[in-house]
Design a protein that fits this description.
Blueprint: E1 4-5, H1 6-13, E2 16-18, E3 23-24, E4 28-29, E5 40-42, E6 60-63, E7 71-73, H2 77-90, E8 95-100, H3 105-120, E9 125-127, H4 137-142, E10 151-155, H5 163-170, E11 175-178, H6 186-189, H7 192-199, H8 201-204, E12 211-215, H9 219-222, E13 231-235, E14 241-248, E15 254-260, E16 263-268, H10 275-289, H11 294-303, E17 313-316, E18 322-326, H12 332-347, E19 354-358, H13 368-382, E20 386-390, H14 395-405, E21 415-419, H15 422-432, E22 438-442, H16 450-458
Parallel strand pairs: 4-5, 5-6, 6-7, 8-10, 8-11, 9-10, 11-12, 12-13, 18-22, 19-20, 19-22, 20-21
Antiparallel strand pairs: 1-3, 2-7, 14-15, 15-16, 17-18
Helix pairs in contact: 3-10, 3-11, 10-11, 12-13, 13-14, 15-16
Length: 462
């Protein structure tokens, strides 16, 4: 964040300064438990906790009422944060890369940030951290940029129409990507078509000299080309940026050739799962849209380390048991992709079993039961050896598996273990998993199944 006096903040956001006109030299933050010395504490009054009550000791505050610290008072601290972020990004020469999609946002963001850092310099890139992809997270990301920043990479999430358009007003993109339209958050939107309408706001925000990066393999995304005057660059199996000859190592990490404009370059990813190929291709397309060389992009992808925890995070216990912790988020599409990765890893471990520990996928609305049942059916179709279902809300996973296993052509010889919650699920795996097995742990963030993964890793085999 470029240094700014609190009186200047007040002028930018239309607020009133109470207290000393201190100089803010560090980024904004909202968690009083992790204060940033010299930064701007944004006090947000929530339903249960009021940030103003924790402002004591802050260097400077942006809020809706005076505090013990120097404070800019405004009617809406969240909206004011957005106005400040827009002012700050306009004052830099940084280009904004924005991306959205029903799944794969964080993986693609991490690849793109790694590629840009490799090619432009580590200090030249600011990217979304954790789940900062909403009306608070996007401006907090932007406010980490300063005059030395060349590229700002932001995830953008939406829970309704107009959300992404608002985020783009805070961080106007020069390059914007839509990865896919799935069933994540269909409970809020009502249909995939409504999700597509909202996601497409990101390409509508582009100027004519911008670039829209679109998934050619998703018809709802490909159709968004009509919603922008910007140049369109596609990625996909047969798109402008494409891949071929995908293979996997013993831990399910893909190797492939990345192609663009007739040239092909090898890529070996360090992350688990076939879905990472499309994520990497999307990131490559965004980097190519910025003018970077495809050979350099491919080389940087091969060097990119995993940056976000609990997203296909692979660990090996001392006795050899492999645990894949993908407990940060889940929807039917991402869960099927994780199950495919589980089977690839298990196939390379002679005598080992594939064990899928699956919890609730939230925000599916009317599709809750159908979405969970489809995952159970997918586990059977893929031949998962043991399906451990965690909690009552995930019970339709077991029902879907039972229906699929009962089909005449199934031939499935696997087992379904239904557990009441995290402790029971972790106990079952600890007592029954063998050293040569592979365990996938997957659910929406609210299910907190990362605790199951942690418990399994700390345990021993039966």
């Amino acid at each position: 964040m470029n240094p700014i006096r609190l009186s200047q903040v007040a002028a930018v956001v239309g607020g009133t300064l109470h207290g000393e006109d201190v100089l803010v030299t560090e980024p904004a933050y909202i968690d009083s438990r992790a204060p940033i010395p010299g930064g701007l504490f944004v006090a947000v009054a929530g339903e249960r906790v009021d940030g103003h009550d924790f402002a004591a000791g802050a260097h400077a505050v942006l809020g809706t009422r005076p505090t013990a610290a120097p404070t800019v008072v405004t009617d809406d601290s969240v909206a004011a944060l957005g106005r400040l972020a827009r002012h700050q990004i306009d004052a830099t020469s940084a280009s904004v890369f924005a991306l959205t999609g029903s799944q794969g946002k964080t993986g693609t963001k991490d690849y793109l940030a790694a590629v840009l850092a490799s090619l432009a310099g580590e200090d030249a890139v600011v990217a979304t951290r954790a789940n900062h992809n909403n009306e608070l997270g996007v401006p907090l990301t932007v406010l980490r940029a300063d005059d030395s920043t060349r590229h700002v990479v932001v995830e953008m999430g939406a829970r309704g129409g107009g959300h992404i358009a608002y985020l783009c007003s805070i961080a106007p993109p020069r390059i914007a990507a839509v990865l896919n339209v799935g069933t994540a958050h269909v409970g809020e939107f009502g249909s995939r078509e409504a999700i597509a309408q909202a996601k497409g706001e990101i390409v509508e925000a582009l100027d004519a000299d911008g670039v829209a990066v679109l998934n050619a393999d998703d018809p709802l995304v490909a159709a968004m080309a009509r919603r922008t005057t910007a140049r369109v660059l596609t990625f996909g199996a047969e798109a402008a940026v494409r891949w071929r000859d995908v293979s996997y190592d013993a831990l399910g990490r893909p190797t492939f050739e990345l192609g663009h404009d007739g040239a092909w370059h090898p890529v070996t990813l360090r992350q688990v799962g076939g879905h990472q190929v499309a994520n990497a291709a999307a990131a490559a397309a965004m980097a190519l849209a910025a003018g970077y060389d495809v050979a350099a992009v491919a080389a940087a992808l091969s060097e990119a380390e995993a940056a976000s925890p609990m997203r296909m995070q692979l660990s090996e216990r001392a006795d050899g048991l492999v645990v894949v912790n993908d407990a940060y988020n889940a929807n039917p599409e991402s869960t099927r992709a994780a199950l495919e990765a589980l089977m690839r890893i298990a196939s390379g471990r002679p005598g080992g079993r594939s064990i899928a520990v699956l919890g609730e996928m939230r925000e599916l609305g009317a599709e809750h039961d159908a979405g969970h049942r489809s995952v159970g059916a997918a586990a059977v179709a893929l031949g998962v050896d043991v399906l451990v279902v965690v909690g009552e809300q995930a019970a339709p996973v077991a029902a879907g598996a039972a229906d699929a296993a009962g089909g005449a052509a199934s031939g499935w010889q696997g087992d379904v273990v239904v557990t009441a919650g995290r402790e029971e699920a972790a106990a079952w795996v600890r007592q029954n998993a063998r050293a040569e097995d592979v365990v996938l742990v997957k659910a929406s963030r609210g299910a907190a199944l990362e605790l199951v993964a942690q418990t399994i890793l700390e345990g021993t085999t039966a």
